[in-house]
Amino acid sequence: MNNILYQKYAPHLLRLGLVFVLAWFGSSQLFDPAPWTGLIPLWITNMGISATAFVYLNGSVEIVLAILLVFNIATRLVSLLVALHLLTIVFDVGLTGVGVRDIGLMVMALASAALGSGKEEVSTI
Fold first, then answer.
1. Helix, strand or coil for residue 123?
2. Where are the domains of the chain?
3. What is the pTM for the complete model shown?
């Protein structure tokens, strides 16, 4: 394989990596929210939103973002939303194992936003 071929497929592989992570965590939250409720920050439950309801909402959002990315819809915008979502998690959990992992994923999402997804993208946003 030559460098041109790598460059052609790199945005797709990066995007699909994000899709896998978002789909796994999103579906995990929807199918079994209980383990996730303890991770919800106090400021959210202090607003009157139950931890379980927020986990369902968050899982649903992650699934929608994954679907948009897998179908190449508004890839740049969606990737920026994923990066922002991950940034909020990093601010909440700090530089823990979860935070460092999410920083890596956030950088992947920013790279996906910068690269777009090529000619096949449904939207040029």
1. coil
2. 9-115
3. 0.88
